[in-house]
Design a protein that fits this description.
Blueprint lengths: L3 H8 L3 H8 L7 H14 L5 H8 L4 E6 L6 H14 L4 E6 L4 H11 L7 E3 L6 H9 L4 E6 L10 E3 L2 H15 L4 E5 L8 H13 L6 E4 L4 H14 L5 E4 L2 H13 L9 E6 L2 H5 L5 E4 L2 H19 L14 E3 L4 E3 L11
Parallel strand pairs: 1-2, 1-3, 3-4, 4-5, 5-11, 6-7, 6-8, 8-9, 9-10
Antiparallel strand pairs: 10-12
Length: 345
């Protein structure tokens, strides 16, 4: 297998120039760049990732921490992250914590700074102290999908206004004429979906509508199914259900079907996020879409900037600097077939 030095000799350049071309770094003239690429192709050179990591003290990979790969949102988000990372020559390692902080800590200790040169964190139920420790060791960390832009987390992040998402969902149901509305929150009362529910409650309060009946449930189809059945059995006159995520919303539609209710004629259902299943369900789920691809691109770009600025300095060098936060575009209501005007039952 040809080496980087052999590619450099073939192209008539230094090994450092070859490295800069392959990693898309530094200033290399167009003619020289093409000469290097021609040499790479002619020799069939393939970089040895482990050797590169040892030689450069950095790995060409990024770690993406997710809470559950079984949740279809995370594969969709991971795909967007992978596409964004490839533009800088990075690979992505998916670290599935199964919502276990100890598993997350193990990933951080074993991968951050060795197999990956930066860490992207979704709602992976990680201890912030562990993330700060990772950062202090010189491995940049970026939180993705931070749900409260007005309350920065103290770590670099990309924020989405999920409170506004909940408000948009509530306004949509109110504009359709719904007044007896149930809510399914896919987390504990103080959990990650709290801002979404707060925005929904704000919309109802402003309209003078009584606070919705609420059930807290697992952020799954099964959790939404059980919560919806409990809501509908305790108050058969409910005409709509708001769920803080798409999976519980889909579960609510399944529960409605099992109870002999038609969606949306008897019960309107709305969720938040807009995963592929929301578009493919029947009826298709009305939802408040968040800019998943944009968040992935912003997060990868921010992490790359931190990686470039942190080498030779370590994270401690950023100690008193302002912690960066990027804010993604506002969520948008996507009306489909699962919501409509109420009819009395």
């Amino acid at each position: 297998m040809p080496t980087l030095s052999e590619v450099a000799r073939h192209a008539g350049v230094t090994p450092a120039t070859v490295s800069n071309v392959l990693r898309n770094r530094g200033r290399v003239g167009a003619t020289t760049r093409q000469r290097v690429l021609d040499a790479v192709q002619a020799l069939g050179y393939r970089p040895h990732l482990a050797a590169r990591a040892l030689a450069e003290g950095r790995a060409p990979t990024l770690a993406l921490m997710v809470s559950s790969i079984a949740n279809p949102f995370y594969p969709e988000f991971a795909l967007a992250v992978e596409r964004a990372a490839r533009t800088s020559g990075h690979f992505v390692i998916i670290c599935n914590t199964n919502e276990d902080p100890l598993s997350g800590r193990a990933y951080l200790e074993q991968i951050a700074g060795t197999l990956s040169e930066g860490v992207l964190v979704t709602n992976a139920n990680l201890d912030f102290a562990d993330l700060h420790t990772t950062e202090a060791r010189g491995t940049p960390v970026v939180l993705c999908m931070w749900e409260r832009p007005a309350e920065p987390p103290g770590l670099p992040c990309v924020a989405v206004d999920f409170r506004r998402a909940g408000e948009l969902a509530g306004l949509h149901l109110l504009e359709l004429g719904h007044r007896r509305i149930g809510a399914i929150v896919g987390s504990k009362a103080s959990g990650i979906h709290a801002a979404r529910y707060e925005g929904f409650v704000d919309a109802l309060r402003t309209a003078g509508v009584p606070k919705a009946r609420v059930k807290h449930a697992a952020d799954t189809i099964q959790g939404g199914y059980a919560a919806a059945r409990a809501l509908l059995e305790s108050d058969p006159k409910l005409t709509a259900i708001f769920a803080t995520n798409n999976l519980p919303a889909l579960g609510a539609m399944h529960a409605a079907a099992d109870l002999g209710l038609n969606v949306p004629a008897d019960l309107s259902v709305i969720g938040i996020t807009d995963i592929q299943l929301a578009r493919e369900s029947r009826p298709a789920l009305t939802t408040v879409a968040v800019p998943t691809v944009e968040v992935a691109e912003l997060a990868v770009t921010l992490l790359r900037e931190l990686i470039e600025s942190s080498y030779g300095q370590q994270a401690a060098g950023r100690g008193t600097a302002r912690v960066p936060m990027r804010t993604a575009s506002s969520p948008e209501l996507v009306v489909r077939a699962s919501t409509g005007a109420p009819r009395s039952r």
